[in-house]
Amino acid sequence: MFYAMIVVFLLGYTAIALEHPLKLEKSASALLTGVLTWVLFVFGVQELIPTKEAFWEFLHEQGFLSELTKADFLHHIEEVGFLGMVKSAELKEFIASSYVYAKGGVVSAYLDFVGHHELLHHLGEISEILFFLLGAMTIVEIVDQHQGFRVITDKIKTLNRVKLLWILSFLTFFMSAALDNLTTTIVMVALLRKLVADQKTRWFFASMIVLAANAGGAWSPIGDVTTIMLWVKGQVTTIPIITDVIIPSLVTMVIPLTLLSFTQKGIVERPVIHSDEGEFTTPFERVFILILGVSSLLFVPVFKTITHLPPYMGMLFGLGMMWTVTEIMHRDKIIGVKKRLKVTGILTRVDVPTVLFFLGILTAVAALDSAGHLELLAGWLDEVTNQNIYFINLGIGLLSAIVDNVPLVAGAMGMYDIAPPDAVGTTAMYMVDGQFWQFLAYCAGTGGSILIIGSAAGVAAMGMEKIDFIWYMKRISLLAMLGYFSGAATYYLMFGL
Protein backbone atom coordinates (compact mmCIF):
# COMPACT_ATOMS: atom_id res chain seq x y z
CA MET A 1 0.00 0.00 0.00
CA PHE A 2 2.95 2.29 0.65
CA TYR A 3 3.85 2.30 -3.06
CA ALA A 4 0.22 2.19 -4.17
CA MET A 5 -0.31 5.53 -2.42
CA ILE A 6 2.49 7.03 -4.50
CA VAL A 7 0.98 5.64 -7.69
CA VAL A 8 -2.48 7.04 -6.88
CA PHE A 9 -1.01 10.43 -6.03
CA LEU A 10 0.97 10.55 -9.29
CA LEU A 11 -2.06 9.46 -11.33
CA GLY A 12 -4.18 12.12 -9.66
CA TYR A 13 -1.49 14.70 -10.22
CA THR A 14 -1.35 13.72 -13.89
CA ALA A 15 -5.13 14.04 -14.22
CA ILE A 16 -4.92 17.55 -12.72
CA ALA A 17 -2.12 18.48 -15.14
CA LEU A 18 -4.08 17.14 -18.12
CA GLU A 19 -7.37 18.70 -17.06
CA HIS A 20 -8.15 20.27 -20.44
CA PRO A 21 -7.15 17.35 -22.73
CA LEU A 22 -9.07 14.92 -20.49
CA LYS A 23 -11.98 17.37 -20.12
CA LEU A 24 -12.10 16.41 -16.44
CA GLU A 25 -12.48 19.14 -13.82
CA LYS A 26 -9.36 19.26 -11.65
CA SER A 27 -11.42 19.54 -8.45
CA ALA A 28 -12.94 16.10 -9.12
CA SER A 29 -9.49 14.58 -9.71
CA ALA A 30 -8.13 16.18 -6.55
CA LEU A 31 -11.01 14.96 -4.38
CA LEU A 32 -10.71 11.41 -5.68
CA THR A 33 -6.94 11.47 -5.13
CA GLY A 34 -7.34 12.74 -1.57
CA VAL A 35 -9.91 10.13 -0.57
CA LEU A 36 -8.20 7.18 -2.30
CA THR A 37 -4.82 7.88 -0.69
CA TRP A 38 -6.44 7.72 2.75
CA VAL A 39 -8.35 4.55 1.81
CA LEU A 40 -5.07 2.90 0.85
CA PHE A 41 -3.52 4.23 4.04
CA VAL A 42 -6.20 2.58 6.17
CA PHE A 43 -5.97 -0.72 4.28
CA GLY A 44 -2.19 -0.76 4.62
CA VAL A 45 -1.73 0.44 8.19
CA GLN A 46 0.20 -2.66 9.19
CA GLU A 47 2.84 -1.89 6.55
CA LEU A 48 3.37 1.78 7.36
CA ILE A 49 6.22 1.59 9.84
CA PRO A 50 6.90 5.38 9.92
CA THR A 51 3.64 5.91 11.83
CA LYS A 52 4.34 3.37 14.60
CA GLU A 53 6.07 5.91 16.81
CA ALA A 54 3.18 8.34 16.48
CA PHE A 55 0.81 5.44 17.24
CA TRP A 56 2.66 4.65 20.46
CA GLU A 57 2.42 8.29 21.50
CA PHE A 58 -1.31 8.21 20.79
CA LEU A 59 -1.80 5.08 22.92
CA HIS A 60 0.36 6.50 25.69
CA GLU A 61 -1.54 9.80 25.74
CA GLN A 62 -4.82 7.91 25.97
CA GLY A 63 -3.53 5.86 28.91
CA PHE A 64 -3.63 2.61 26.94
CA LEU A 65 0.02 1.80 27.65
CA SER A 66 0.77 2.52 31.28
CA GLU A 67 3.91 0.34 31.57
CA LEU A 68 5.25 -0.23 28.07
CA THR A 69 8.06 2.08 26.95
CA LYS A 70 8.30 3.40 23.42
CA ALA A 71 11.60 1.56 22.85
CA ASP A 72 10.10 -1.79 23.90
CA PHE A 73 7.02 -1.22 21.77
CA LEU A 74 8.99 -0.34 18.62
CA HIS A 75 11.52 -3.12 19.26
CA HIS A 76 8.78 -5.73 19.53
CA ILE A 77 7.24 -4.58 16.26
CA GLU A 78 10.63 -4.95 14.59
CA GLU A 79 11.03 -8.43 16.04
CA VAL A 80 7.68 -10.00 15.19
CA GLY A 81 6.16 -7.56 12.71
CA PHE A 82 2.98 -5.64 13.23
CA LEU A 83 0.59 -8.49 12.45
CA GLY A 84 2.83 -10.80 14.47
CA MET A 85 2.46 -8.49 17.41
CA VAL A 86 -1.31 -8.49 17.07
CA LYS A 87 -1.44 -12.32 17.06
CA SER A 88 1.40 -12.84 19.54
CA ALA A 89 0.72 -14.73 22.76
CA GLU A 90 2.99 -12.18 24.44
CA LEU A 91 0.68 -9.34 23.52
CA LYS A 92 -0.67 -9.00 27.07
CA GLU A 93 2.85 -8.46 28.36
CA PHE A 94 3.35 -5.54 26.02
CA ILE A 95 -0.12 -4.02 25.97
CA ALA A 96 -0.91 -3.25 29.60
CA SER A 97 -4.35 -1.75 29.14
CA SER A 98 -7.32 -4.10 29.04
CA TYR A 99 -9.28 -1.27 27.43
CA VAL A 100 -7.46 -1.91 24.16
CA TYR A 101 -8.66 -5.53 24.18
CA ALA A 102 -12.20 -4.46 24.91
CA LYS A 103 -12.08 -2.40 21.75
CA GLY A 104 -10.85 -5.27 19.62
CA GLY A 105 -7.10 -5.28 20.11
CA VAL A 106 -4.25 -3.18 18.89
CA VAL A 107 -5.41 -3.18 15.25
CA SER A 108 -8.71 -1.62 16.30
CA ALA A 109 -6.82 0.94 18.33
CA TYR A 110 -4.52 1.63 15.40
CA LEU A 111 -7.44 2.13 13.01
CA ASP A 112 -9.00 4.43 15.58
CA PHE A 113 -5.71 6.32 15.68
CA VAL A 114 -5.72 6.68 11.90
CA GLY A 115 -9.36 7.65 11.57
CA HIS A 116 -9.83 9.82 14.61
CA HIS A 117 -6.38 11.17 15.26
CA GLU A 118 -4.27 11.42 12.12
CA LEU A 119 -7.08 12.29 9.71
CA LEU A 120 -8.76 14.75 12.07
CA HIS A 121 -5.39 16.29 12.91
CA HIS A 122 -4.71 16.99 9.25
CA LEU A 123 -8.31 18.01 8.60
CA GLY A 124 -7.95 20.65 11.29
CA GLU A 125 -4.90 22.13 9.58
CA ILE A 126 -6.52 21.91 6.15
CA SER A 127 -9.72 23.50 7.43
CA GLU A 128 -7.74 26.50 8.65
CA ILE A 129 -6.57 27.09 5.08
CA LEU A 130 -10.02 26.48 3.58
CA PHE A 131 -11.84 28.83 5.96
CA PHE A 132 -9.12 31.42 5.45
CA LEU A 133 -9.55 31.06 1.68
CA LEU A 134 -13.35 31.23 1.87
CA GLY A 135 -13.24 34.33 4.05
CA ALA A 136 -10.71 36.10 1.82
CA MET A 137 -12.53 35.22 -1.40
CA THR A 138 -15.85 36.41 0.02
CA ILE A 139 -14.37 39.72 1.21
CA VAL A 140 -12.85 40.28 -2.23
CA GLU A 141 -16.20 39.48 -3.89
CA ILE A 142 -17.97 41.96 -1.58
CA VAL A 143 -15.53 44.69 -2.62
CA ASP A 144 -15.86 43.69 -6.27
CA GLN A 145 -19.68 43.73 -6.24
CA HIS A 146 -19.61 47.18 -4.65
CA GLN A 147 -17.30 48.32 -7.49
CA GLY A 148 -14.61 49.11 -4.93
CA PHE A 149 -11.78 48.08 -7.24
CA ARG A 150 -12.77 50.84 -9.66
CA VAL A 151 -11.20 53.25 -7.18
CA ILE A 152 -7.83 51.63 -7.96
CA THR A 153 -8.28 50.70 -11.61
CA ASP A 154 -9.35 54.23 -12.48
CA LYS A 155 -5.97 55.42 -11.17
CA ILE A 156 -3.99 53.01 -13.38
CA LYS A 157 -4.11 54.72 -16.76
CA THR A 158 -1.35 52.94 -18.65
CA LEU A 159 -2.26 50.38 -21.32
CA ASN A 160 1.35 49.47 -22.04
CA ARG A 161 1.82 45.75 -21.32
CA VAL A 162 5.33 46.05 -19.90
CA LYS A 163 4.60 49.03 -17.65
CA LEU A 164 1.41 47.41 -16.36
CA LEU A 165 3.29 44.16 -15.70
CA TRP A 166 5.92 45.93 -13.60
CA ILE A 167 3.37 48.03 -11.71
CA LEU A 168 1.19 45.05 -10.78
CA SER A 169 4.18 42.85 -9.89
CA PHE A 170 5.77 45.36 -7.51
CA LEU A 171 2.38 46.17 -5.99
CA THR A 172 1.85 42.44 -5.42
CA PHE A 173 5.38 41.95 -4.02
CA PHE A 174 4.93 44.45 -1.20
CA MET A 175 1.25 43.72 -0.57
CA SER A 176 2.12 40.05 -0.10
CA ALA A 177 4.58 40.95 2.65
CA ALA A 178 1.95 42.99 4.48
CA LEU A 179 -0.94 40.57 3.98
CA ASP A 180 0.10 37.12 2.76
CA ASN A 181 0.66 35.58 -0.66
CA LEU A 182 -2.73 33.84 -0.85
CA THR A 183 -4.87 36.85 0.09
CA THR A 184 -2.81 39.17 -2.10
CA THR A 185 -3.20 36.88 -5.10
CA ILE A 186 -6.97 36.75 -4.67
CA VAL A 187 -7.14 40.55 -4.45
CA MET A 188 -4.80 41.19 -7.37
CA VAL A 189 -6.43 38.65 -9.72
CA ALA A 190 -9.80 40.25 -8.97
CA LEU A 191 -8.21 43.64 -9.74
CA LEU A 192 -6.65 42.25 -12.92
CA ARG A 193 -10.08 41.37 -14.29
CA LYS A 194 -10.87 45.08 -14.33
CA LEU A 195 -7.67 45.94 -16.22
CA VAL A 196 -7.21 43.27 -18.91
CA ALA A 197 -9.92 41.89 -21.20
CA ASP A 198 -8.10 39.16 -23.13
CA GLN A 199 -7.95 35.86 -21.22
CA LYS A 200 -4.52 34.64 -22.41
CA THR A 201 -3.01 38.05 -21.62
CA ARG A 202 -4.58 37.86 -18.16
CA TRP A 203 -2.96 34.43 -17.71
CA PHE A 204 0.48 36.00 -18.22
CA PHE A 205 -0.29 38.77 -15.75
CA ALA A 206 -1.88 36.39 -13.23
CA SER A 207 1.15 34.09 -13.46
CA MET A 208 3.48 36.96 -12.64
CA ILE A 209 1.20 37.93 -9.78
CA VAL A 210 1.63 34.40 -8.39
CA LEU A 211 5.41 34.62 -8.74
CA ALA A 212 5.53 38.10 -7.17
CA ALA A 213 3.20 37.09 -4.33
CA ASN A 214 5.33 34.05 -3.44
CA ALA A 215 8.53 36.10 -3.65
CA GLY A 216 7.03 38.86 -1.50
CA GLY A 217 5.78 36.39 1.10
CA ALA A 218 9.15 34.65 1.53
CA TRP A 219 10.95 37.58 3.20
CA SER A 220 8.14 38.61 5.53
CA PRO A 221 7.41 36.77 8.81
CA ILE A 222 3.68 36.98 8.01
CA GLY A 223 3.84 36.73 4.22
CA ASP A 224 3.86 32.96 3.71
CA VAL A 225 2.66 30.05 5.81
CA THR A 226 6.11 28.42 5.84
CA THR A 227 7.81 31.63 6.96
CA ILE A 228 5.12 31.99 9.61
CA MET A 229 5.92 28.46 10.82
CA LEU A 230 9.62 29.27 11.15
CA TRP A 231 8.84 32.61 12.79
CA VAL A 232 6.38 31.17 15.32
CA LYS A 233 8.73 28.31 16.28
CA GLY A 234 11.64 30.71 16.75
CA GLN A 235 13.98 29.65 13.93
CA VAL A 236 13.85 33.15 12.43
CA THR A 237 13.12 36.59 13.87
CA THR A 238 11.50 39.62 12.26
CA ILE A 239 14.28 42.03 11.32
CA PRO A 240 16.93 39.52 10.12
CA ILE A 241 14.52 37.57 7.88
CA ILE A 242 13.43 40.85 6.27
CA THR A 243 16.88 42.36 5.75
CA ASP A 244 18.61 39.13 4.66
CA VAL A 245 15.98 37.61 2.34
CA ILE A 246 14.32 40.64 0.69
CA ILE A 247 17.05 41.10 -1.94
CA PRO A 248 17.12 37.44 -3.10
CA SER A 249 13.31 37.49 -3.20
CA LEU A 250 13.35 40.68 -5.26
CA VAL A 251 15.80 39.08 -7.71
CA THR A 252 13.45 36.09 -8.01
CA MET A 253 10.74 38.41 -9.30
CA VAL A 254 12.85 40.86 -11.32
CA ILE A 255 14.63 38.26 -13.49
CA PRO A 256 11.40 36.84 -15.02
CA LEU A 257 9.97 40.36 -15.26
CA THR A 258 13.00 41.54 -17.20
CA LEU A 259 12.84 38.62 -19.61
CA LEU A 260 9.11 39.09 -20.18
CA SER A 261 9.72 42.78 -20.89
CA PHE A 262 11.36 41.72 -24.17
CA THR A 263 8.44 39.52 -25.27
CA GLN A 264 5.37 41.38 -24.02
CA LYS A 265 4.89 44.16 -26.58
CA GLY A 266 2.02 46.48 -27.39
CA ILE A 267 -0.93 47.51 -25.27
CA VAL A 268 -3.64 45.68 -23.35
CA GLU A 269 -7.33 45.91 -24.05
CA ARG A 270 -9.44 47.07 -21.13
CA PRO A 271 -12.70 45.20 -20.46
CA VAL A 272 -15.89 46.97 -21.44
CA ILE A 273 -17.60 48.51 -18.41
CA HIS A 274 -21.35 48.49 -18.85
CA SER A 275 -23.04 51.75 -18.07
CA ASP A 276 -25.31 50.22 -15.44
CA GLU A 277 -22.54 48.68 -13.37
CA GLY A 278 -22.09 51.70 -11.17
CA GLU A 279 -25.75 52.38 -10.52
CA PHE A 280 -25.98 50.13 -7.49
CA THR A 281 -23.39 51.96 -5.39
CA THR A 282 -22.43 55.56 -4.78
CA PRO A 283 -18.79 56.82 -4.97
CA PHE A 284 -18.77 57.05 -1.16
CA GLU A 285 -19.94 53.44 -0.80
CA ARG A 286 -17.26 52.20 -3.20
CA VAL A 287 -14.46 53.94 -1.33
CA PHE A 288 -15.87 52.95 2.06
CA ILE A 289 -16.24 49.25 1.17
CA LEU A 290 -12.77 49.19 -0.43
CA ILE A 291 -11.19 50.67 2.71
CA LEU A 292 -13.22 48.36 4.95
CA GLY A 293 -12.27 45.29 2.87
CA VAL A 294 -8.55 46.10 2.80
CA SER A 295 -8.64 46.94 6.51
CA SER A 296 -10.30 43.60 7.25
CA LEU A 297 -7.51 41.79 5.41
CA LEU A 298 -4.76 43.85 7.05
CA PHE A 299 -6.30 43.27 10.45
CA VAL A 300 -5.74 39.50 10.23
CA PRO A 301 -2.07 39.50 11.37
CA VAL A 302 -2.93 42.08 14.05
CA PHE A 303 -5.76 39.86 15.29
CA LYS A 304 -3.41 36.87 15.43
CA THR A 305 -0.80 38.83 17.36
CA ILE A 306 -3.30 40.11 19.92
CA THR A 307 -5.38 36.98 20.45
CA HIS A 308 -2.92 34.20 19.43
CA LEU A 309 -5.83 32.61 17.56
CA PRO A 310 -5.27 31.13 14.08
CA PRO A 311 -5.35 33.57 11.12
CA TYR A 312 -8.61 32.15 9.74
CA MET A 313 -10.39 33.40 12.87
CA GLY A 314 -9.26 36.93 12.09
CA MET A 315 -10.40 36.50 8.50
CA LEU A 316 -13.83 35.28 9.62
CA PHE A 317 -14.03 38.20 12.05
CA GLY A 318 -13.37 40.60 9.19
CA LEU A 319 -15.99 38.88 7.06
CA GLY A 320 -18.50 39.07 9.91
CA MET A 321 -17.86 42.81 10.28
CA MET A 322 -18.30 43.44 6.55
CA TRP A 323 -21.44 41.30 6.50
CA THR A 324 -22.93 43.33 9.34
CA VAL A 325 -21.98 46.69 7.81
CA THR A 326 -23.38 45.83 4.37
CA GLU A 327 -26.62 44.53 5.89
CA ILE A 328 -27.11 47.87 7.63
CA MET A 329 -25.96 49.88 4.60
CA HIS A 330 -28.45 48.31 2.19
CA ARG A 331 -31.43 47.56 4.44
CA ASP A 332 -33.55 50.38 3.00
CA LYS A 333 -32.72 49.77 -0.66
CA ILE A 334 -34.94 48.09 -3.22
CA ILE A 335 -35.09 44.29 -3.46
CA GLY A 336 -33.04 44.06 -6.67
CA VAL A 337 -30.12 46.05 -5.22
CA LYS A 338 -30.24 44.10 -1.97
CA LYS A 339 -30.05 40.80 -3.83
CA ARG A 340 -26.93 41.95 -5.69
CA LEU A 341 -25.06 43.58 -2.82
CA LYS A 342 -25.98 41.52 0.25
CA VAL A 343 -23.50 38.86 1.31
CA THR A 344 -26.11 36.10 1.00
CA GLY A 345 -26.24 36.83 -2.73
CA ILE A 346 -22.50 37.40 -3.10
CA LEU A 347 -21.71 33.99 -1.56
CA THR A 348 -23.17 32.32 -4.66
CA ARG A 349 -20.37 33.93 -6.69
CA VAL A 350 -17.55 32.50 -4.58
CA ASP A 351 -15.47 29.94 -6.48
CA VAL A 352 -16.33 26.79 -4.50
CA PRO A 353 -14.58 24.39 -6.96
CA THR A 354 -11.26 26.06 -6.09
CA VAL A 355 -11.90 25.47 -2.40
CA LEU A 356 -12.73 21.80 -3.09
CA PHE A 357 -9.56 21.48 -5.16
CA PHE A 358 -7.59 22.74 -2.16
CA LEU A 359 -9.35 20.20 0.03
CA GLY A 360 -8.54 17.30 -2.27
CA ILE A 361 -4.89 18.06 -2.97
CA LEU A 362 -4.04 18.96 0.64
CA THR A 363 -5.80 15.82 1.89
CA ALA A 364 -3.74 13.68 -0.47
CA VAL A 365 -0.49 15.32 0.65
CA ALA A 366 -1.55 14.84 4.28
CA ALA A 367 -1.92 11.09 3.67
CA LEU A 368 1.61 10.94 2.25
CA ASP A 369 2.81 12.88 5.27
CA SER A 370 1.15 10.49 7.75
CA ALA A 371 2.36 7.41 5.90
CA GLY A 372 5.94 8.65 6.11
CA HIS A 373 6.61 9.36 2.42
CA LEU A 374 7.63 12.98 3.00
CA GLU A 375 9.76 12.15 6.03
CA LEU A 376 11.64 9.51 4.03
CA LEU A 377 12.02 11.99 1.20
CA ALA A 378 13.51 14.59 3.52
CA GLY A 379 15.89 11.99 4.94
CA TRP A 380 16.93 10.94 1.44
CA LEU A 381 17.67 14.56 0.56
CA ASP A 382 19.83 14.85 3.66
CA GLU A 383 21.78 11.76 2.65
CA VAL A 384 22.38 12.46 -1.04
CA THR A 385 23.43 16.09 -0.43
CA ASN A 386 25.88 15.13 2.32
CA GLN A 387 24.05 17.61 4.60
CA ASN A 388 24.89 20.60 2.39
CA ILE A 389 22.31 23.13 3.55
CA TYR A 390 22.11 24.86 0.18
CA PHE A 391 21.49 21.68 -1.80
CA ILE A 392 19.02 20.44 0.84
CA ASN A 393 16.97 23.62 0.71
CA LEU A 394 17.16 23.91 -3.08
CA GLY A 395 15.79 20.37 -3.24
CA ILE A 396 13.00 21.21 -0.79
CA GLY A 397 12.13 24.24 -2.91
CA LEU A 398 11.94 22.18 -6.10
CA LEU A 399 9.83 19.54 -4.35
CA SER A 400 7.47 22.25 -3.10
CA ALA A 401 6.49 22.82 -6.74
CA ILE A 402 4.99 19.31 -6.69
CA VAL A 403 3.77 18.78 -3.13
CA ASP A 404 2.68 21.21 -0.47
CA ASN A 405 5.58 23.10 1.11
CA VAL A 406 4.07 23.01 4.62
CA PRO A 407 4.82 19.32 5.39
CA LEU A 408 8.22 19.64 3.69
CA VAL A 409 9.18 22.53 5.94
CA ALA A 410 7.65 20.80 8.94
CA GLY A 411 9.77 17.74 8.14
CA ALA A 412 12.92 19.87 7.89
CA MET A 413 12.08 21.59 11.19
CA GLY A 414 11.68 18.18 12.81
CA MET A 415 14.95 16.84 11.41
CA TYR A 416 17.16 19.66 12.64
CA ASP A 417 17.34 21.31 16.05
CA ILE A 418 18.08 24.97 16.67
CA ALA A 419 21.80 25.29 17.47
CA PRO A 420 22.87 27.14 20.65
CA PRO A 421 24.04 30.78 20.33
CA ASP A 422 27.70 29.81 20.84
CA ALA A 423 27.74 27.22 18.02
CA VAL A 424 30.63 27.36 15.57
CA GLY A 425 31.37 25.99 12.12
CA THR A 426 28.62 24.25 10.17
CA THR A 427 26.46 23.96 13.29
CA ALA A 428 26.22 27.76 13.45
CA MET A 429 24.07 27.67 10.31
CA TYR A 430 21.30 26.13 12.43
CA MET A 431 21.26 28.90 15.06
CA VAL A 432 18.31 31.29 15.29
CA ASP A 433 18.41 33.35 12.07
CA GLY A 434 21.06 30.99 10.74
CA GLN A 435 21.58 30.49 7.02
CA PHE A 436 19.79 27.13 6.99
CA TRP A 437 16.52 28.56 8.32
CA GLN A 438 16.61 31.74 6.23
CA PHE A 439 17.42 29.86 3.03
CA LEU A 440 14.70 27.34 3.86
CA ALA A 441 12.20 30.20 4.11
CA TYR A 442 13.33 31.54 0.73
CA CYS A 443 13.35 28.20 -1.11
CA ALA A 444 10.08 26.87 0.31
CA GLY A 445 8.37 30.20 -0.33
CA THR A 446 9.51 30.77 -3.92
CA GLY A 447 10.01 27.22 -5.25
CA GLY A 448 6.26 26.66 -5.47
CA SER A 449 6.05 29.19 -8.32
CA ILE A 450 7.72 26.73 -10.70
CA LEU A 451 4.40 24.91 -11.19
CA ILE A 452 0.96 26.50 -10.97
CA ILE A 453 -0.24 24.04 -8.30
CA GLY A 454 2.95 24.33 -6.26
CA SER A 455 1.63 27.06 -3.98
CA ALA A 456 -1.63 28.21 -2.45
CA ALA A 457 -1.34 31.43 -4.45
CA GLY A 458 -0.95 29.47 -7.68
CA VAL A 459 -3.92 27.23 -6.95
CA ALA A 460 -6.08 30.26 -6.17
CA ALA A 461 -5.10 31.99 -9.41
CA MET A 462 -5.59 28.76 -11.35
CA GLY A 463 -9.09 28.39 -9.99
CA MET A 464 -10.09 32.02 -10.46
CA GLU A 465 -8.74 32.43 -14.00
CA LYS A 466 -8.96 28.77 -15.14
CA ILE A 467 -5.25 28.83 -16.03
CA ASP A 468 -4.22 25.70 -17.91
CA PHE A 469 -1.53 23.63 -16.15
CA ILE A 470 0.29 22.75 -19.39
CA TRP A 471 0.15 26.37 -20.60
CA TYR A 472 1.79 27.54 -17.36
CA MET A 473 4.44 24.83 -17.53
CA LYS A 474 5.36 25.73 -21.14
CA ARG A 475 5.43 29.51 -20.76
CA ILE A 476 6.09 30.33 -17.10
CA SER A 477 7.82 27.41 -15.37
CA LEU A 478 11.22 28.03 -16.97
CA LEU A 479 11.04 31.74 -16.13
CA ALA A 480 10.08 30.94 -12.55
CA MET A 481 12.93 28.42 -12.29
CA LEU A 482 15.45 30.97 -13.58
CA GLY A 483 14.20 33.46 -11.02
CA TYR A 484 14.34 30.82 -8.28
CA PHE A 485 17.96 29.87 -8.96
CA SER A 486 18.97 33.50 -9.49
CA GLY A 487 17.59 34.46 -6.09
CA ALA A 488 19.25 31.42 -4.52
CA ALA A 489 22.59 32.38 -6.09
CA THR A 490 22.14 35.92 -4.76
CA TYR A 491 21.63 34.63 -1.23
CA TYR A 492 24.68 32.36 -1.55
CA LEU A 493 26.84 35.26 -2.77
CA MET A 494 25.62 37.40 0.14
CA PHE A 495 26.08 34.87 2.96
CA GLY A 496 27.52 31.58 1.68
CA LEU A 497 30.98 32.67 0.57
What does this entry look like structurally?
The chain has 497 residues and is mainly α. It has a domain at 123-228 and 240-343. 72% of the residues lie in helices and 0% in strands. The chain contains 27 helices and no strands. The protein has helices at 2-17, 19-22, 26-43, 52-61, 70-80, 82-87, 91-94, 98-102, 106-145, 150-153, 161-178, 181-192, 199-218, 225-233, 238-261, 283-307, 311-329, 335-341, 343-346, 352-371, 373-384, 389-399, 405-415, 435-446, 456-465, 469-475, 477-496. The longest helix has 40 residues, at 106-145. The chain starts with a helix and ends with a helix. Residues 82-104 have low confidence and may be disordered.
Q: Secondary structure elements and their pairing?
A:
Layout: H1 2-17, H2 19-22, H3 26-43, H4 52-61, H5 70-80, H6 82-87, H7 91-94, H8 98-102, H9 106-145, H10 150-153, H11 161-178, H12 181-192, H13 199-218, H14 225-233, H15 238-261, H16 283-307, H17 311-329, H18 335-341, H19 343-346, H20 352-371, H21 373-384, H22 389-399, H23 405-415, H24 435-446, H25 456-465, H26 469-475, H27 477-496
Helix pairs in contact: 1-3, 1-20, 3-20, 9-12, 9-16, 9-17, 9-20, 11-12, 11-13, 11-15, 12-13, 12-25, 13-15, 13-24, 13-25, 14-23, 14-24, 15-24, 15-27, 16-17, 20-25, 21-23, 22-24, 23-24, 24-27
Short description:
72% of the residues lie in helices and 0% in strands.
Task: Name some characteristics of this structure.
globular, mainly alpha, 497 residues
N→C terminal distance: 45 Å
β-strand number: 0
Shape call: globular
Question: How much of the residues is beta strand, in percent?
Answer: under 5%
Order of helices and strands: HHHHHHHHHHHHHHHHHHHHHHHHHHH
Q: What would you call the structural class?
A: mainly alpha
Radius of gyration: 25 Å
Q: Main beta sheet: strand number and arrangement?
A: none
DSSP helix count? 27
Low-confidence stretches: 82-104
Helix content: over 70%
Mean pLDDT: 79
